[in-house]
Amino acid sequence: MIIITRRDMGPLLDAYLAAAWCLFVGLVALIITMAIGMGLFSIIVPWPFFIFSFLNIRNYYKKAPIIKIDKEKILFGSECFFWRDLEQINLMNEKPADEKKDFLEREGVRFVFNNGTVKYMYDQYYTNSEMAKLFLEQVVYNKQDDVVIPVIDGASNLEGAVFTTFKGVALHSFSTIFLFVAVINFIFDFSAINAGNIFLYISSASIIISWAVNMNYFLVSERFIVIKKNYIPWVKQIYNLKNIKEVVITKQNRIDCLKIIRTDFVSETFYAFGFSKQQWHALQQQLVAAGVQVESFIDLKVQ
Asked: What is the pLDDT of residues 13-45, one digit of tens each?
């Protein structure tokens, strides 16, 4: 059996669009500088844009080569490494959110070989990274003959389960304050409604609606974890804890979040605004007590 990674078209398209934009700006700069008679500068000015356009595409293919995996070796493009030379592999490698890395390169598989070479297979660049990880875990590491897809049991019956709720402050920002001030101002002074306040209403309300859709809280029992929306609690997702390989407490876009990685390596991230360190620590402790592996990239030291 051979696993061949498939590139995700999203990051690939982004790379080409960025390169096309740089190329366009370079051409515009070239035309303008030639039109105003800048002489030698008309050749020098656009070149940084042309070079960046080329480097952007080159860097993408360098970071996301086609990877071929079989029982004996792994190929990153034309580079070949044999498993007998593998020193370490981390299937759920995740870099801290405060590390200055592209968010596309924070999650993936980290390979360390005997000669000191370190290679990565980033999740976000490939559409079949979950299958590749299953092959690496089962066939390469555990020496199985073939990949067995884990069965993910449903968790619709919560009868008898006793849950502990972990919930932060969902609306807690300047946008919320601005909206409340604008509304109160409008209530007491009808003439306060104007173009500026309408813009304030719309922008603040859009952020609040976005939070209502994306912000979550968690309920944990001995067997399940339930994720609910702060302001639309009838929308929920239920995970059986036995189907979870790891839970990661981290940050995305500077917002705390909980990432759940299932035993089939399918993962999902849930934003959780307004959690204190004590709440995250308590949630971590409860999950660990239930037998779930938890990794945190947030300082959870409680004074």
From this structure: 888 888 888 888 888 877 877 777 766 666 677
User: Please, are residues 230 and 170 in contact by the beta-carbon 8 Å criterion?
Assistant: yes
Residue 222 lies in domain = 150-170+215-303
Q: Which of 121, 141, 161 is the last residue of a domain?
A: 141
Q: Whole-angstrom Cα distance, residue 15 to residue 59?
A: 9
Place of tokens 């360098």: 62
Q: How far is CA 87 from the centre of its chain?
A: 27
Q: What is the pLDDT of residues 141-197, one digit of tens each?
A: 888 888 888 888 766 677 778 888 888 775 555 555 555 665 565 555 555 556 666
Would you place residue 82 in the very low, low, confident or very high pLDDT band (cuts 50, 70, 90)? very high
Residues 113 and 155 grouped into a single domain: no
Contacts of 82 (CB under 8 A, 6+ apart): 72, 73
SS3 142: coil
Tokens of 296: 């945190």
Of 148, 5, 158, the closest CA to residue 69 belongs to 5
Distance CA(121)–CA(262), nearest Å, equals 18
Name the nearest CA neighbour of 122 among 100, 144, 98, 91: 91
Distance of CA 290 to the CA centre of its chain: 25
Predicted TM-score (pTM) of this structure: 0.76
Number of domains in the chain: 3
At residue 146, the 3 state secondary structure works out as coil
